[in-house]
Write a structure and sequence with these properties.
By secondary structure, this protein is an alpha/beta fold. The chain contains 7 helices and 13 strands. A hairpin with an 8-residue loop joins strand 1 and strand 2. The N and C termini lie far apart (51 Å).
Length: 294
């Protein structure tokens, strides 16, 4: 067994696919390939997976991911039609308009997850800026970047988990988590930058993160109410939903939470206004002004 191998834990019934991050004398450090989980396991408990696509765990996740992406695309298509109808009704004529989705700043503690996240933002045409940052450095990076990027939405995520041998009564202590304290520190910096929760939407947390502490620090959406594993793309799904929800409307909490792969036990949040705007008339694109910048 070596770094980079795909493995499952036999004691857990092979329910999650991991990539070996490091191999120690008696155990291996693992990162989930689909779930934002950082774990370790005794080497004898691990089995190398040669064909990950053939495992039931991966197949089930793929189905959920595809369903989630289809839902996003369907909602986006419906929104475009509704925007056209609204403008046509308001002006009583067909008038070309332009769209300004909310801009996302995404900090991720995992480079592979960041790559997948940026691909999905690009697919959905969400303006985004992503950085691979260790969880412990996120607060400092946000302090520098927020005034430069001026995002509408911030995603603060990576890896997390409840430390081993913690009693249920310890779940409300930040000391019981691998990275929740770092996420809380980053949320506080972002909320200090913009105190209005509708002015800057913050989505924070990873697998099993301290949901209550993240909300109290100022996030709009956070994981994980049920201290469960969340899928790598769940924060991205919420960010896209926020980016394309009108500034006149609140993000439908039920829709956005149940639209994630992890569901209500994985992600929760508070009522929040969207960050999407429509403009008129549509600017003429010229050689001197090929792209509208808002």
């Amino acid at each position: 067994m070596k770094q980079g191998d795909l493995v499952v834990r036999n004691s857990y019934g092979g329910d999650v696919l991991f990539r070996v991050e490091a191999v120690r004398t008696h155990y291996a450090v693992l990162k989930g390939t689909d779930y934002r989980l950082l774990a370790d396991a005794p080497i004898p408990d691990l089995s190398v997976v040669r064909d990950p696509e053939s495992t039931s765990a991966v197949q089930q996740v793929r189905i959920k991911v595809n369903d989630s992406i289809k839902r996003m695309r369907s909602e986006r298509e419906r929104q475009v039609v509704e925007s056209e109808d609204h403008i046509r009704h308001a002006l009583q004529q067909s008038q070309p308009f332009f769209e300004v989705p909310g801009k996302v700043l995404h900090l991720d503690g995992d480079g592979n997850y960041l790559k997948k996240s940026m691909q999905l933002y690009n697919t959905m045409h969400v303006p985004s800026h992503g950085l691979y940052v260790h969880e412990s450095q996120m607060a400092d990076v946000l302090y520098r970047l927020l005034p430069q990027i001026k995002p509408d939405i911030v995603v603060i995520t990576g890896h997390d988990g409840v430390l081993k041998n913690r009693a249920s009564t310890d779940l409300y202590s930040l000391a019981s988590y691998k990275n929740s304290q770092h996420f809380v520190n980053a949320v506080r910096i972002a909320r200090e930058y913009e105190k209005n929760r509708d002015g800057l939407i913050i989505i924070a947390g990873a697998c099993q993160s301290h949901f209550e502490a993240l909300l109290q620090a100022g996030s709009n959406f956070a994981s994980s109410p049920g201290r469960i594993l969340i899928h790598a793309l769940d924060p991205v799904y919420i960010a896209i939903k926020a980016s394309y929800t009108s500034i006149k409307d609140t993000i439908n909490l039920s829709d956005v939470i149940h639209g994630t792969i992890s569901g209500i036990e994985g992600v929760g949040g508070i009522e929040t206004m969207g960050r999407f705007r429509v403009g008129l008339p549509k600017p003429k694109i010229t050689a001197d002004n090929p792209v509208l910048k808002v």
